[in-house]
From TrEMBL:
Entry's Gene Ontology BP terms: methylation
Keywords: Methyltransferase, Transferase
Name recorded for this polypeptide: Methyltransferase type 11
Domain of life, per lineage: Bacteria
Gene Ontology molecular function: methyltransferase activity
Amino acid sequence: MEPTMQQITWPVIALALMTAACDSGGGVRISTRSSGKDSPGVLKVVDALQCPQTQGVLTRKGSAQAEGATCIYGGPRGSEVTLQLVKLDNASVHQVLKDFETRLSASLPEAQAAVDARAAADVAQAGADAAAQAADEAARDTAHVIAGPVRVHAQDDKASVRLPGISIKADGDRADIRIGGLTIRADDKSGNVKVASPDKSVNIDATDGAARVQTSAPGEAVRATFMMTADRTSESGWRTVGYEARGPVGGPIVIATVRSKDRNENRLFDAAKALVTLNVGD
């Protein structure tokens, strides 16, 4: 049985969107750099923050607090950015950043609940798919196409395509796409998307109305980004929260936390990142 038009176009459209996102100037931008002693990306150890009066769309509120460890900035439409110098005090970087994520996510409880529920459903669905696949296989009409490195397998309402470095599996409204080490799972019907890398340096959970993005660069130094956003304003008044964090592996690390009432958060995060870079380097 030949695959339907929806089965063919869904993965093709998904690939096109991913390519466009990588080529565009917006969206999630991820860069890495070596943090060795002789590399230009070494991060500085600082004992007090540099807090300029203005940075991009941000304006500092008052003077530095806590002996130079905290500066508070205001931005467009009541947005807030807090720049902090955080000592690890024998805690792991992972735990420190996790605590920041927990506190920020509490500002968007509805979005957090939706994303967490979606992530749990994805795990359950993956198990159900694996169990059902063996039972389905014998009963379905199949078609195979092999042309050099390209392999296409169609089976009723399912289809898979394999090319060097790329694998696409479509099942009705759902698609599983692997590009290099990146995995994209999407459900066209519900609007849910999951993006992850094997080393967990990229993790994106998105559902209808909410999204959570976590990135970290490889290497010993800390270079991490977190963002949670919602289509609707929460009871707290915020629509987007997150942080930009950098610092040497032993600390202290500089973290700029962001809270925004607007979904156009790019300029806000750019300014927060610039404050962090000013203090510890790129």
